[in-house]
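Usage example:
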Amino acid sequence: MVMITELGHFTLILAALFGVAQMVIPLVGAHKGWRGWMAVGDPAAVVQLLLVGFSFAALTYAFVVSDFSLNIVVANSHSDKPMLYKVTGVWGNHEGSMLLWLLILVLFGACASWFGGNLPTSLRARVLGVQASVCVAFYAFILLTSNPFERLDFPPFDGRDLNPLLQDPGLAFHPPFLYLGYVGLSMSFSFAIAALLEGRVDAAWGRWVRPWTLAAWLFLTVGIALGSWWAYYELGWGGFWFWDPVENASFMPWLLAAALLHSAIVVEKRESLKAWTILLAILAFGFSLLGTFIVRSGVLTSVHAFANDPERGVFILAILAFFVGGGLLLFAIRAKTMEAKGVFSTVSRETALVTNNVLLAVSCFVVFVGTIWPLVIELGSTNAKWTFTGGLIDNPFYTIGLFDRPEQVSVGAPFFNAAFTPFFVALSIILPVGAVLAWKRGTLAKAAKPMVPVAIFALACGALAFALQTGRTAMGPIGVVLGVWVVGGACMDIWLRTVRGAVSGRLKRLTRLPRADWGKFTAHSGMGITVFAVAALTAWEAEDIRIAQIGDRWQVGIHEVELTAVDTVEGPNYFGERGDMAVFRNGRPVGHLYPEKRVYPVAQMPTTEAGIRNGVLRDVYVVIGDPQDGGGWAVRTYIKPFANWIWGGSILMALGGLISLTDRRLRVAAGAAKAKTDPKGVPAE
Amino acid sequence: MRWLALTLCLLAAPLAAVQPDEVLDDPALEARARDLSDGLRCPVCRNESIDESNAAISRDLRLLLRERLVAGDTDEQALQYLVDRYGDYILLNPKVEGANILLWLAAPIMLILAGGVAFVTIRGRSGAPAPDDLSEDEQERLDKIMRG
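Running the assembly step on the lines above writes:
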């Protein structure tokens, strides 16, 4: 059994060889039109999955049995660690997480082979070839710079334990979902490059690429929501989004994936926006790679960065430059060949979706600029002279007077809130009307008319919220208006899909609508709910900071909290103090909260475990801190209104994606068989 | 050492941020202090405001800021006082001056550019004859097919 690590290492190298084969043979075959060569892609993709799967299993085994002769097991595990975190510790470190990335990459490759039965042979061969080229880059990265199977000459007695912050279910499953999203976008990329090589983008291409984008986007949504939820309960002050570079790294591909799956609709339905959609697919994956670069290189070090190695950073940068640069070059050469077929007027669903794309893409650009800005300023201003091909030249930024000394700036939440929020407000405003505009040639009046009652209702809700709150910002009521407007708009949209007639007939038709309609409804509602919840939580949060003695009772909003006891606790790999707090609502006891302060001695880290009482309308969130000199404990109490709605809305968005996906699968996979019996099987939306 | 540094400044604070003994008695002044410290960066952490940070220096900054406010400084004066000592680096919201103007203009410029390109393209395209309209021949053939 000791050999199993070496076997895992060996299968990884073997998989890399299959990757090279899958990259070269199908691409050459597709170019020359040799069917035999094209067919190599499919088995190679499956073999790669099996080999990398075995390799990953071998690494997991090493973690499970705590094999401390392995470098990364020592650095990230401990024999006392609970089994769940021994397993999730596999990807709680740089090397293992890259192996997980690769595993998902080959998984998508195999899926493309399994579900791509309806693709033209040459397109499928090219997709698999391009996908394999991405795999090869990451095989090289792992084997050359980040080998998880490295042994130690003298194994220590026990490990150094996993960062205790990562020993948490929310964060344990956050990376796999994020990676499914990041890596899922590699499929969109492969389809885009394959289409450019093929020289053909048509409605069918739009239909094939959409499920992959949809899947990637929904995994990203879940991953981001999990990370945000984790930050909320684990970091100890209930923040849910920090505009941290690492968060931005996952948010940028999410924004572009959202844009891409909307523009692919236009390609599919109207054969328009082809070049733009291809460009988006390349950029979306580019941002995935950029995200990997940011996280892995530590170039913009932040709360999350746990790898800091320039060699690795440069390697990923080279991968990024090769795929994005190569993709864009190919795009520049071939984009002209993609002529739009469907024309549309200035007022149409197409235009609404273009507006959606402009807003999403520009908001992504804003996040991008804000994220790299400190780096730009630092690189631009550090030296007045630059070394250039051996000699020294004047720093052009100094010449034009932009800098006169080295500078460092920070770009944080206040900037992003100010620069990014307007885009989502604008998106929310146009969404309900844009979603019901007619394809090709619409009239604004006709689309807006059914939305008038929704708008009136939304404004009335906002006015009510404004009247109920006292002396606070307008942010809460604006959030209410936008949320009700988007959710109400989504309801009106799906109601309009039942056309007209008696209410009973329309209700019946509602149940028979294609799943894509329900997916759209669910996802758009989810977005409305999240927009509302973010505004509501930010505007209406209440906070109390105090030194509490045992027996003290204090009021926060309609709740009262009493510190009844503080005990010591001991876990498998930590010890700490636990407060017992009784919560009262309007004077009636509603339960107890047990916030903890832990210390993980092996990792030498303290953590806070907040006590949270989840409620539909508000969370009560208590944190216990250090004992004070004069007796008592530092205690913070928060009321977090509508906190759960943020993640609830996100999960609805992901669920909407899932519902659309099931529709699509029926249509794509079973489409060929069904088309014969049901000639009008393709729904309009 | 790295873990220790991280432990000291960012990751899991035993009790995040503002301590009870720092809070000012005057709620209005305290509210201003909280607002301002939300926009000030902890000098030794990455991307955390002094309001959230548990680092010792953040505590010093919070106390210093409150001292200035109690002394009667306006928000701008108090911020300037800290920036003079710690540099622009501590402002999480970069000032709109010098090179940072580009950062602030990035969003509007890009929006105008992208919106303009999209508008011109759509405008130009919608004027062209619709190629998916059927020619007379095709229409006749279609009619024939439809009639069976």
